[in-house]
Specification:
alpha/beta; 7-stranded parallel sheet; 13 strands
């Protein structure tokens, strides 16, 4: 089988991480005589390990302007892929009109949640999301197969653009083994102090739908009541949202005594942050399949989390839930976490067990099996509609 991977619109973040991990595990996946061609930017190709059976094609146009990238993806790639591949996989959710079977992945929920997209106001980002909505809906409707990361994402997209003509599969992301850490002994509140506080961690991009400022306000309220808790915020940032966060921190904690924005941490080092925390908080209002949440679960941490889907689907009974738009709701969840070590232990254990089968090996295996089925659909073998 000759696979093509359209990575032309994978620039950073979860999309790049997903591609790197499934290619690392491809040796355990497709079976038989296989070859994979990846088209991407030079920076992306440099991050992918050279392996037999994988051809990395760094395309100069993909390091140019957005219009040049789109032109290459929509006009040039269909000809190249048609000559060299049996099926094309577009994990970025956008690709041109191809003569061979195509499988696309739905990753970004913002184009399909206009209420969340409007948080950007009148901005380039909002315009970009509206254009993406049109282009991705067109891609989804003509794809041979579609991979969704969660039931919530599939339900949301179908509700927005209508029933999809191609078959769909649910293939969850994995978690690297280095994040795994069995839940620790949970200490009583009396064992913490202002000198040795309960350390909360929030890992995510600082963005308008992540609400780090509400979490900071909740922690500030708890500190005023005397609770020994601190918050570390880790992640890159969308500049307007970072300005809002910094303004909030200047008001709430001008000396950075209990809330610290740590900036971006390289992913190979990120597991150390989880392993050094006592609890985790996640306040997003728009997600598809938040790998960050899976990492916190695998790290054995008790988690206070947004009550929105798909977070409740992923965590289920393994989390304490709050309204992410209300600091008082967030503070109540954190209070319960910190004051009740038995509940903390139960939550951490439940979340850890739920993350146990989330491996990249399984994700890669299911992905390439599904690609094989979609490639064979024209011969009368329809792809299955579900995956683990």
């Amino acid at each position: 089988m000759r696979y093509g991977i359209d990575a032309s619109n994978l620039r950073s973040g979860g999309g790049v991480h997903h591609l790197l991990r499934i290619l690392e595990n491809v040796g355990n996946s497709p079976g038989g005589d296989t070859h994979i061609t990846v088209w991407g930017s030079r920076a992306l190709c440099e991050r992918i390990a050279r392996r037999e059976g994988i051809t990395l094609t760094a395309v100069p146009d993909l390091d140019a302007s957005l219009l040049r990238r789109l032109h290459w993806q929509m006009r040039r790639l269909p000809t190249l892929a048609g000559r060299t591949c049996d099926i094309l996989f577009a994990p970025g959710g956008l690709t041109g009109n191809h003569s061979i079977p195509t499988v696309v992945m739905c990753r970004n929920m913002l184009p399909f949640d206009l209420g969340e997209a409007r948080r950007y106001g009148a901005s380039f980002m909002l315009a970009r999301l509206l254009v993406l909505r049109v282009l991705q809906a067109r891609t989804f409707r003509r794809a041979t197969g579609m991979i969704f990361l969660s039931d919530y994402a599939r339900e949301r997209v179908v509700a927005q653009i209508g029933q999809l003509p191609g078959k769909t599969a649910l293939i969850a992301h994995g978690v690297a083994p280095r994040f795994q850490h069995e839940p620790r002994r949970q200490r009583r509140l009396e064992e913490y102090s202002l000198e040795k506080p309960f350390r909360l961690l929030y890992v995510s991009i600082v963005d308008v739908y992540k609400h780090q400022w509400h979490v900071a306000a909740a922690v500030a309220s708890l500190r005023r009541s005397g609770m020994p808790v601190v918050l570390d915020i880790v992640g890159p940032a969308y500049l307007p949202a970072l300005r809002r966060l910094k303004a909030s921190l200047r008001e709430l904690d001008p000396t950075a005594a209990f809330v610290k924005y740590c900036g971006a941490v390289a992913h190979p080092e990120l597991h150390q942050r989880y392993h050094g925390a006592d609890g985790f908080v996640f306040a997003s209002t728009c997600e598809n399949m938040p790998n960050i949440l899976l990492e916190a679960m695998a790290a054995g941490l008790p988690i206070a989390c947004s009550e929105r889907r798909p977070m409740t689907d992923i965590l289920d009974a393994g989390g304490l839930y709050f309204d992410p738009l209300r600091p008082d709701s967030i503070s109540r969840a954190i209070t319960t976490m910190v004051r009740d070590p038995k509940k903390r232990a139960r939550l951490a254990s439940t979340a850890y067990e739920r993350a146990a089968n989330r491996t990249w090996q399984r994700c890669a295996l299911n992905t390439f099996q599904y690609l094989n089925e979609c490639a064979g659909a024209r011969a009368g073998r329809a792809p299955q509609s579900e995956r683990a």
